[in-house]
Fold this protein.
Amino acid sequence: MSEKVQVAVIGGGPGGYAAAFLAADLGFEVALIEKRKNPGGVCLYEGCIPSKALLHAAHALSEARHAEKIGISFGEPRVDLNRLRDWKNEVVEKLTGGLGQLAKARKVRFIQGRASFVSAHALKISGTDGESSLEFEHAIIATGSEPVRFSHFPESDRIMDSTGALELRDVPERLLVLGGGYIGLEMCTVYAALGSKVTVCEMADALLPGTDEDLVRPLAEKIRSICEDVMLGAKVTDVQVESDGLRVRFDGLNLKTPEAKFDRILVSAGRRPITDGLGLENTAVRVTDRGFIKVDEQRRTSEKNIYAIGDVAGQPMLAHKASHEGRTAVEALAGKKVAFEPYAIPAVVFTDPEIAYCGLTERQAKEQGRTVSVARFPWAASGRTLTLARTEGFTKLLIDPETNRVLGAGIVGPGAGELIAECVLAIEMGAVAEDLALTIHPHPTLSETIMESAEVFLGHSTHVYRPKK
Ligand code: FAD
């Protein structure tokens, strides 16, 4: 006999588990169906968390190397790869195990298995103990995304995606990173710090396509300095598996070499939503021509009792966007008048330097023909950045010149990812430049650069002389 719950959540990533936990907190009977042993999804198992653990290790290595510049010498660092891998896995296990406990404490029924719809009110679940069925009043689809594969590449265990790269099987002597988006550049940072000679190949004519050029510039310089080669406007035309590596041919302008040999290739050329095998054809749920599930502002699909959130429901594919959509969907099914309509979803590239931005970008302002004032505060004018020996960054605010309202922000430099939250809050609260300028920021901190950017706009920044015209 089939069992029944009020809310069935399919997929236990940051979208799915946030939704399931809130639904339970609101008093619903909830089932969370997930293929893995515990909640966590791509984010915890093979995305945000393991990548940031390895980036922490990369940071420690580069800090140790750079300490020489300020008179401290540790000698060449030695890396115990087994210990590093174990530590990263321990972090993941601790967090995913903790989520399992939180699900139990909230009485969320966690079912390990693969779910597919048999109708708009019932699921078939293929689990570790065989098949079962589950009826539901409301369902939330949170099945996430997976890496795009290049089907024309040969089969070889030397070719990996981001999941393979995070397993850290070895440190290849020569690594080709295909794709200069944030995942490719984060992995490039990790492997270059561990000692690989890394080449980055990006089809577009710039790294981090779509990001404001000025923010990318300091990072691009750093990436060039740690890589063997950075190919822009280039693509791979052929990969041959040889006994001792992969022979790769490239096509593009200004190539150093049209052919090179690598020990491994990391393909990080984007991700696609997972809807295959979900049985959507047994429901009225529809997908867009890019494969995302079509949703409205409450994240309701074309089937009125089924919602979709996170990577499977559209860009940007980010964990915090997934969790917030999860909350919106649950509140909507609980009958609350809600909509997912943020002014600012932050994006962070956790490289060194970091890049973070939110709200309106200069690129978007240009595309929309919108007049904005851009106020930049160079980090070279900050006392804190000098004490960190990191002056290459800057903070910028995009401000409406009529109302002084803060519309967007971009930061490049170490710690940008932590700093951006203040700008997100400012944008969401409708802050004007004066609000940021009049807020007393602690000294000496990088956060002062946000206050001083607002002062630059107002024409009275203490540490840069740029009178308002
Ligand atoms: P996912 O996290 O993808 O979870 C979906 C879950 O659904 C999976 O656990 C899967 O097993 C399960 N599932 C799928 N189909 C079924 C089914 N039929 N039945 C049952 N279960 C199913 N984002 C950030 O915000 N910050 C970062 O720093 C960041 N770094 C990243 C680094 C890497 C290397 C990668 C790959 C991604 C990174 N992301 C980052 C993106 C982030 O991981 C995703 O945006 C986020 O995980 C999406 O959450 P989600 O809940 O939509 O789905």
Observations:
- DSSP finds 13 helices and 21 strands in the chain.
- The pocket of flavin-adenine dinucleotide is lined by residues 10-16, 33-36, 41-43, 47-48, 51, 114-115, 142-145, 162, 183, 274, 278, 310-311, 317-320, 322, 350 (CB under 6 Å).
- The first strand starts at residue 3 and ends at 10.
